[in-house]
Amino acid sequence: MKPKLNLPRLLALASTCFAFFVVTASAEDAVVEKWGRFEILLNGPAEGNPFMEVELEATFTNGFETKTVSGFYDGDGVYRIRFMPEATGEWRYRTQSSAWELSNQVGEFEVVAPSSDNHGPVSVYNTYHFAYADETPYWVMGTTSYTWTHRPAEFEELTLKTLEESPFNKLRMCVFPQTHGTKMDQSQPMPPERFPFEGEGTDPNYERFNPEFFQHLEMRVQNLQDLGIEADLILFHPYDDDHIWGLDHMDDATEERYIRYIVARLSSYRNVWWSIANEFDFVRNKTDADWDRNFQVVVDADPYGHLRSIHNGKEIYDNNKPWVTHASIQNGAAADTVTAAQLYRDVYRKPVVYDELEYEGNHDLRWAQLTGEDLVHRFWAATAAGTYGGHSEFIFDDEDTSQVVWLGQGGELKGDSPERLAFLLEILENGPLGGFEPIDKWHWDPTVGQPGVQYLTYFGRQAPEEWEFKLYKGLEAGMKFKVEIIDAWNMTITPVKGVFEIGEKKDYHHYDTKGRSIQLDGKPYQALRITRVN
Amino acid sequence: MKPKLNLPRLLALASTCFAFFVVTASAEDAVVEKWGRFEILLNGPAEGNPFMEVELEATFTNGFETKTVSGFYDGDGVYRIRFMPEATGEWRYRTQSSAWELSNQVGEFEVVAPSSDNHGPVSVYNTYHFAYADETPYWVMGTTSYTWTHRPAEFEELTLKTLEESPFNKLRMCVFPQTHGTKMDQSQPMPPERFPFEGEGTDPNYERFNPEFFQHLEMRVQNLQDLGIEADLILFHPYDDDHIWGLDHMDDATEERYIRYIVARLSSYRNVWWSIANEFDFVRNKTDADWDRNFQVVVDADPYGHLRSIHNGKEIYDNNKPWVTHASIQNGAAADTVTAAQLYRDVYRKPVVYDELEYEGNHDLRWAQLTGEDLVHRFWAATAAGTYGGHSEFIFDDEDTSQVVWLGQGGELKGDSPERLAFLLEILENGPLGGFEPIDKWHWDPTVGQPGVQYLTYFGRQAPEEWEFKLYKGLEAGMKFKVEIIDAWNMTITPVKGVFEIGEKKDYHHYDTKGRSIQLDGKPYQALRITRVN
C-alpha cells in the first residue's frame, strides 16, 4: 500500500551525480542513546503540496541490521526523518527521495547504551504480560484522558503535574479533538487549540496536514516519556458527532495518508502504543474491513512494531487477528468478577487490558458513576484474573471553576482510587517474574501467581472471616510459605505469624500440615499474599 | 487436497466406450424426500486395496443446481454414493471413477416434499441461534454419551429408548472408541465391539477401513434421526491413552483419508454435525495447524456444509476462524453466571453452546459432581445469556449391575436434571422467534428476549423476594405486559394477576405506571416471563 520509490532509477541518478549532491544532513545529535531518537533535518521544496508530492525515506544500517524509515514534511520547506536505533554502535544512513535536494544525503552517528530510565519500548512478554525491551517488567497501570492535549498550555502542564504525582504509567489519549463539552453536553463545547489538517475545524483540507498540531502532540508524547508514561495513542474515534470536524468519515486514502504521516512522525518515540480506534464500532460507516486495513497500514509503516490494539464499544473486534498485539477491552461487568475477567485471556492468548471498566464518577450516565471502591475492586479482580485494569474518572465538581473532567480534558484527579492503585502497583512490582497467572482457572479460585513461588488470592466482595490454608498446582510436601493479609482498600499489609508447611496433595490441594486457617476481618476487598520461604 | 480425477481422460474414454458401458445404477429408491438420502449402489473391483486405489464420485443435477459427491468403498466389491437432495423435482446423475466398471453410470430419480418430521439439516440462524433448513427453530438441548455406539446391541437399544423418553435433541458422540473403563479406570477397560480400521485394536492397518464399523455407526445415526436427534459426531479425541489403539496419533494423510471416508459415508444424513475433536488440546502432538487442516478437509469434503465445531479442554481454539460455525465450549464456571456466560457471544458473533458445563454426578473428579440443581441452573444461566447448555451425567451406582455411566456408555439416565431440562425446552419453544437475546448485555441484567415482545429474567441463586417491574430497550409508554413466575427447579409457571403498563423512560428503564413490584418466593432458581399483550 505504501507508495514505492523508484529506487533503481534514484540509485542510478545517485551514482552519476554523487560528487555534486552529497551533503551531510544536519542531524540534531551525532550521539544518541539506544531506543533514543536520531533525527535528520533536511531542507527541500516548499512549493506545491509537499505532503502529497514528495516521497522521502532513509535507510539506516549498522552493518548487521538495516531499516528503512519514512520521513515527513514538517512545513516551511523542512523535512525530517526520525529513527529509533535498537542496537548500540556505529550507524550510517542514506536518504532516498522523489526530490533531488533530499536524495542521497548520508551521515553516521554513534548509538550509546541507554541511560538508566530508558528501558526501551514495551512489548508482549510471557504471552499475557508486558516488558520493556531490556526485559524490565512493565506492569500496566493505565488511565485515560482523551483530549488533554487540546487544552491551553497551562492546563496541559497541570495535567502533566498530576500525572507525575500519580501511579499511572500509561495514558490513553486521542490524537483528534472531540466535540463533547464538559458534561458530555454539546451546548458547552470546548473547541480545541489546533486541528490536524489545514482549515479551521469544519472545513478541513485533507491533503495538507497542520505541522503545528503534530509538533504539539509530539511535545506532549515526549513529556509523557520523560515521566515514564506510555502514550497509548488513539488514532480514530467517534466523538465528532454529526461529523462537525470531518475527522470520523475520511475516505480510505486519507486515512492511510494520515496513519503514515503520524507513524513517520511518532514511531521513533519509544513510549508510543497505537490504539487504532476508540469504541471503533461507534464510528458510523466503518466496517471491520476498514479497521483491518488501518491495522495493516500501521504494521507496514511502523519499523519498530509498537504495540497495537483497538478498543470496543458494544461490539468486540476479532482480537485474534495477527496484527493485534493485545486486547484493549471495554467491559465493566467482565472486570467485576475474577471468573468473568479470565475468559478473554484464553480466547485471545494475548495480554488483556480492561482499558475501560467504567469510571469513578458522579455522572448520571451509568458508565461514569463507579465509587472508588468499585473501581479499585475491578482493578484487583482484573489482577486476580491475570489481566490488567484501566482507570479514569468523571467527577464533576460544581465548585471547581475548571468545569472539566479528567476523562475528557485532564487537569486534576479528584477520586479516591489513584492512591489505592499506587498501592496495587507496588503489589504488582513485588510479584513473581513472569506475571500473575491464574493458578486454577475456570474454578472460581481468585488466585494468581506462579506455582510454588507466590500466590495472590483476592476475595473481593466475599468478605470471608477465615480461609483454610490450601494451595494448588506445582507443589511438593515440605514447601514452606509465609502469609500476608492485604487490605486493598485501606492499603495495609499485615504479616500472619508463623510459617505454613504443606503436606501431600489431598484431592486437588495441598493443606497446611497443622491444618491451620487464616483469620480474616470479614470485610470486603481483602487479599492474601502467600510467598514461598524455603 | 482432494485427489483429483483426470476427468478429461475419463470423459474421452466415456465417449468412446459409451455404447458398451452405460448401465443404470441400482439405486435403492427412485423416489426420495427432500433432505432424504438417495444412494447409488455399484459393484466394482474387490481386489487390491480399493480404499486406497479406487476413486469414485457422482455429479447430480436438477438442471439448476449441480453437486459432485464422493462415493466410498463398502467392502466385498460394493461401492456406494450417497446424496442428500436439497430441492424437489427431477434429478439425474452420472458417475466418474478411476475404475471403468464404476464410470459413467447414469440414472434419475424424483425428489418429493419432505414428510412432516423432516425439517432438513440444522444451520446457524440469526447469528447466535439455530434453525432447520425449512426455518423451523431448533433450540439446542444437548447431551453427551461418548461411546454409546461401542456397546453390545442390546445396551445400545436401551440408550436409544432412554433418549426417546428424554428432552434431548442433540447427542455428542465419538466415532472412535475410548480406552477409559467404567470409572475412568484403566483396570476396568470395556473393549469396543468394532474398530474403524482393519486389525484388532492395537495394530490397525490405516490403509483399510472396516466397513462394518461404519455401517454400524450409520445405523445408529439413522436411529437418532428417527428420534429427531442431531448427531454431533466427534471425529477425533484424546481418550486413547498411551496410544493403545493408534487412533490419536495418525499421520496427516491418514487423518485426511479418514475424514474423507466418513464424510462420504455420512454427510447425506441430515442430522449430522461435525465436531472436529473433543478436548482437542489434550490430543498430544497435534497443533492448532493440524486442527485447521482437518476443518478445511471437512469443508472441502462435505457438499452440504453441516455444522462444524471443535471442543476445548483447557485451551480454546480460535472459534473466529471462518470454518467454525459455532463455539462448542467446555467451561463450567463461565456457564454458572449470566454475565460470564454472555462473554463468548460477543467475541465470536456465532452461536455459543456450552456443550460441557460439567456433569451431574457423584464422582470424586470435580468435573463430574454437579448436583441436579447446579446443572439445571447452568442451563438456565446459559439461556439467560443468549447461549445454550449441554447435559451429561456421571452417576455411578454400585447397585446397578451395568457398571456404566451415561457420559461414557449410555444406558439409562439416573439424574434429577433431565425432566427439568424438558421443562426448560418448553420455555425455549414458547420463546420469541429470533431467539432469546441479551436485552442489556454487560450490565448484570439476567434478561433475554426480544425487545417489546417477550422478556425472560432468570434470578439464579439470587433468590429475591420481590422485583420492581421495569423493562429495558425497544419500548414505548403504553405497552402492556403479562407476567408469569417460573420456578425452574420445581417446574411451575404461575401467572401474576393483572396487566402491567409501562410509562415513559426514566433514566434507562420503563417502569410500571402504577409502580408495582412482583412478589417472589425468596427461593433460588426463580424466573419471570414477561410477555407483551397489546
TrEMBL record, chains A, B:
Keyword rRNA-binding: no
The organism's place on the tree of life at top rank: Bacteria
Swiss-Prot/TrEMBL keywords: Signal
InterPro entries: Apiosidase-like_cat_dom, DUF5060, GH, Ig-like_fold
Apiosidase-like catalytic domain span: 126-456
Every DUF5060 domain range: 32-97
Signal peptide feature range: 1-27
Transmembrane regions: none
Keyword Nuclease (UniProt): no
Descriptive protein name: DUF5060 domain-containing protein
Upper lineage: Bacteria, Pseudomonadati, Verrucomicrobiota, Opitutia, Puniceicoccales
